[in-house]
Amino acid sequence: MQSERFFNALKGLGATCKLVMLPHEAHGFRARESVMHMAYEMTEWLGKYVKNAGPRETADPKGAAHDKAS
After folding, report:
1. CA max distance for the chain
2. Is residue 47 part of a domain?
3. How many domains does the chain have?
4. Per-residue pLDDT tens for 8-19?
5. How open is the CA angle 2-35-28, to the nearest 5 degrees?
């Protein structure tokens, strides 16, 4: 329930996020398959949104957006 609320709050703020919930697993992961699946999910997400991400726009204190690379 907390994970879903946190995810929905992040999405509501425009964050790039993904919620992965596995059956028969609680807060921690016990099954080897679950641990491997979460490692895969994290690697894919980081590769897509962090490693291969282009330059981000940042907010100017005066309210104008500008490219960080500028």
Report:
1. 50
2. yes
3. 1
4. 999 999 999 999
5. 35
